[in-house]
UniProtKB/TrEMBL annotation:
Signal peptide: 1-22
TM helices/strands, residue ranges: 242-265, 277-294, 300-318, 330-352, 358-381, 388-410, 422-442, 449-465, 493-510, 662-682, 694-711, 723-743, 755-776, 797-818
Taxonomic source organism: Actinomadura luzonensis
Name of the protein: Uncharacterized protein
Manganese keyword on record: no
Length: 837
């Protein structure tokens, strides 16, 4: 024991010695300015005073509406027909004497075209126009005109902007950035076109007309604001005390919260650990907005999200599960082995970047590992079990290497120079404890597969594999642009919060799976509330933002589609439906279907008797006695089946609600996949944002899941009648998302008809296709041919699939003919900007 304790101290001392002797890693050198020196500034310094004063510079700015040929290079998805597309043409002219050294620099090119912006900004100053850019600024090659009086150089710059119909436009004329000034005084002319100069600061015009404003400036920046001619300004701006958008957002949030609470059930709230979990999360939630209001205190939010919440989740799982985790020594060896692999990566980084020399690192690591292994052998040798002693020795050596890597990483972290993605890796592994505990509680057991899956999902929440495998992110911490979605900067804490929201949604689905294992879930209010909550979450679409009065926290305004999804789902499940005798076995289902088919045959035979009997009785081919005999025989046969309508095709077919729901969801998803041609493939910088962008692929399959899960309760008595009710509910929900856009007077009727056609075609194809599949599935489970209920040679029987196919073809035609407006409406207001995801 003394020797073992001494070896443990030696191992700890080796780790401590490596940490203390480690040197701070030098910060990466600032990137050098690769831009070549301005050739015009160098040439201007060679000119005498008389030559410099002879230069004359002027700038002419022409504003006009962009024509179709101007917008040719602009991606179609960026152009919003509800806004103005503006073309700003800036023409710079510079007159120079024949002996001016600037002419030589201009004719030699001086790095053109790369230095064109550098040259124009140095001589004339930058001209900036507010509003989102439709395309990069373009600069034409300079044009030279030489005559006896000197040389005139013309530089043309074109900018494309997109602003609101009545939005003000700001022109910013910056001062030239060359010192000393190449041109002492320059003249600027503005031709506003369809705009009127509203404000001008620091300008004394030489010429001032409605279509022309001319002034002269030197090194003073000038800002000018213009208003469109069609804009009028009311004397009093009416403030609306009531906002439909805010009210709708509050209503959606309240309804969703109510259904989330109801989905848990009264029994869930009666358990003390659950109430403690809710209280803990409620206390932690306010701290997560700290980075939005006080960035200096962001560390508190990181500690809460990546330390306190995982600890709370693990504690809750430990109290809820009846057994402790079944981890053994082999599991510990695997985990520590993976930790050693990561630790070796950190040790290699420390060696490559000079934090610790190679010899010192090898010596310290070897001493720490061997001493730790020897200490483990000394402490466990009395057990007398060789496999246990060997495993403890290996485990101790791995732990020593991991501890050394962790100590060096903390030392690098304190010095501010460390691998950038190393922090995200640690945070992701810590955050993974939350889904591990959540899945354990949901499945009532600890699972090794769940741990592996949770770690993988956690890494995907913090970034795509391409981002993790970027070699630069494991080198030195250099400034990098943080991707963003809307107003959210996707730093690790925002990604973690979005991951929690995704995890909450997954927990709702797992709850549906647990409840759906029994047929009683069809009539369960808890299952119904959970299903409606899932639908509402899928249909939440941020529509604008608002800000709280006291703190600058952006909050999304929830779209109407979520509320409509709630209303239509309630309508589907709350309608009148006949009492259904549910079969408990496949054999009972088979007997019910055969009896229903027999009854349908008798009904058809009775109708045929009355149809044929009219003619045959009149012609004398059939006597009245024969007619009554056949009629009484059919009525007697029908009486054996009872007077109540047959409900064999309105049952769950002896399957669990979850199984039915999964089948319906799968068919709905397969039928929705072709519409990726219309909406495009999902995009995102991590798993959460990708799934959020893929909601359009999941909304209709989610309605299909509701159809299968609660099939006996859905309005209607047959698969197709239920599918038609589902079509009405889904169509109303899908179209509600386009109501505000379709009400725009600036959008043409043809474009609106195309959008409506695409949505109607998609919904009809999915829902009618699901109804046909469900009809086939019921017959397949009863071992009966589908042709007994769906005659493929009958036009009446083919009416529904023909309608769905016709609408799908119409949708395809509308998609191929869809223009910029339709594409913009379907895909939303997505205008790309530099640096965004």
């Amino acid at each position: 024991m003394v020797i073992a304790s001494g070896l443990a101290l030696v191992s700890f001392g080796a780790i401590l010695w490596c940490t203390l002797t480690a040197r701070p890693v030098a910060a990466p050198a600032a990137p050098r300015n690769a831009a070549a020196p301005n050739p015009w500034v160098l040439a201007a310094s060679k000119a005498d005073a008389a030559t410099g004063s002879a230069r004359r510079a002027s700038t002419e700015v022409l504003l006009s509406l962009a024509a179709d040929q101007d917008l040719t290079p602009v991606p179609a998805g960026r152009i919003d027909p509800r806004q103005r597309q503006i073309k700003v043409t800036v023409v710079h002219t510079l007159r120079m004497a024949a002996q001016d050294p600037l002419l030589g620099a201009l004719r030699q090119g001086g790095g053109f075209p790369g230095t064109l912006q550098q040259v124009t900004d140095a001589v004339f100053g930058a001209v900036k126009v507010d509003g989102p850019g439709l395309a990069p600024t373009t600069r034409d090659a300079p044009v030279l005109n030489t005559d006896a009086s000197g040389t005139l150089a013309v530089f043309t710059v074109t900018l494309l902007r997109q602003v609101g119909k009545d939005a003000l436009l700001t022109l910013d004329f910056a001062a030239p950035n060359a010192f000393p000034l190449i041109v002492q005084r320059r003249t600027i002319s503005v031709l506003p076109g369809a705009w009127t100069v509203l404000r001008q600061d620091g300008i004394t015009p030489m010429r001032e007309q409605a279509e022309w404003l001319e002034f002269a400036i030197g090194a003073t920046p000038v800002v000018m604001t213009l208003a469109p001619d069609s804009a009028g300004f009311p004397d009093v701006a009416e403030e609306q005390d009531f906002s439909w958008a805010t009210a709708l957002g509050v209503l959606t949030a309240v309804v969703l919260l109510v259904f989330l609470l109801r989905s848990l059930g009264r029994g869930w709230w009666q358990r003390l650990p659950n109430r403690e979990l809710v209280i803990g999360l409620a206390l932690a939630a306010p701290t997560l907005v700290i980075p939005l209001v006080a960035r200096d205190w962001s560390a508190v939010a990181y500690v809460v999200l990546f330390v306190a919440v995982p600890a709370l989740a693990l504690r809750h799982a430990g109290r809820m599960l009846p057994t402790s985790p079944p981890w053994n020594t082999r599991d510990l060896l695997v985990v520590t082995g993976l930790g050693v692999v990561v630790g070796l990566g950190m040790l290699i980084w420390s060696w490559l970047h000079g934090q610790l020399g190679g010899q010192a690192l090898l010596t310290g690591g070897a001493v720490a590992a061997l001493a730790a292994a020897g200490a483990a052998v000394g402490f466990s040798v009395d057990l007398g079990v060789r496999p246990v002693v060997v495993r403890l020795a290996v485990l101790s050596a791995e732990a020593a290497i991991g501890l050394l890597a962790l100590a060096l990483w903390l030392r690098a972290l304190l010095s501010g120079v460390y691998p950038p993605d190393s922090t995200r890796l640690v945070l992701a592994l810590s955050w993974a404890m939350i889904p591990v505990a959540a899945v354990a509680v949901a499945t009532k057991q600890w699972s090794r597969g769940a741990v592996v899956g949770a770690v993988a999902v956690s890494l995907l929440v913090q970034g795509w594999p391409t981002e993790w495998l970027d070699t630069g992110s494991w080198s030195l911490a250099v400034p990098q642009a943080v991707p963003s979605v809307g107003v959210l900067r996707l730093d690790p804490i925002v990604r973690g919060v979005l991951g929690l929201l995704l995890l909450g949604f997954v927990m709702l689905v797992l709850r549906l799976r647990r409840l759906g294992g029994e047929l009683a879930a069809v009539d369960s209010q808890v299952a119904e509330s959970t299903m409606i909550a899932v639908l509402m979450v899928l249909y939440i679409t941020p529509s604008g933002i608002t800000t709280l009065a006291d703190i600058n926290v952006p909050l999304p305004l929830l779209a109407i589609t979520s509320v409509v999804a709630w209303a239509t789902a309630r309508w589907l499940l709350s309608g009148p439906h006949v009492a259904v005798v549910e079969p408990t076995t496949q054999e009972q289902h088979r007997q019910l279907v055969r009896a229903a088919i027999h009854k349908r045959l008798l009904l058809v035979a009775e109708q045929e008797l009355y149809r044929v009997g009219r003619g045959r009785l009149g012609s004398g081919e059939m006597s009245m006695a024969d007619f009554d005999q056949r009629r009484h025989a059919l009525e007697a046969a029908l009486a054996k089946h009872g007077r109540h309508p047959e409900t064999a095709f309105a049952t769950a077919a002896a399957c669990t609600p979850w199984l039915n729901g999964v089948h319906a969801f799968t068919i709905g998803l397969l039928l929705s996949l072709p519409f990726t041609i219309v909406y495009g493939l999902p995009q995102g910088v991590d798993l959460t944002t990708w799934l959020f962008d893929a909601r359009y692929l999941l909304t209709l399959p989610a309605f299909g899941f509701l159809y299968g899960y609660f099939y006996p309760r859905v309005r209607g008595t047959q698969p197709m009648t239920k599918a038609l009710h589902l079509t009405a509910a889904a169509l109303l929900t899908e179209l509600s998302g386009y109501l505000s856009t379709l009400a725009e007077p600036d959008i043409g009727a043809f474009d609106k008809a195309q959008v409506a056609g695409i949505v109607v075609g998609q919904v009809t194809l999915v829902c009618v296709g699901l109804g046909l599949f469900w009809e086939w599935r019921i017959m397949h489970l009863a071992d009966e041919p589908w042709a007994r209920v769906r005659n493929l040679r009958s036009m009446r029987s083919l009416a529904a699939p023909t309608l769905a196919l016709a609408l799908a073809i119409g949708t395809t035609a509308a998609t191929s003919a869809a223009g910029t407006t339709v594409d913009h409406i379907l895909k939303g207001d997505q205008v790309s900007s530099g640096g965004g995801p």
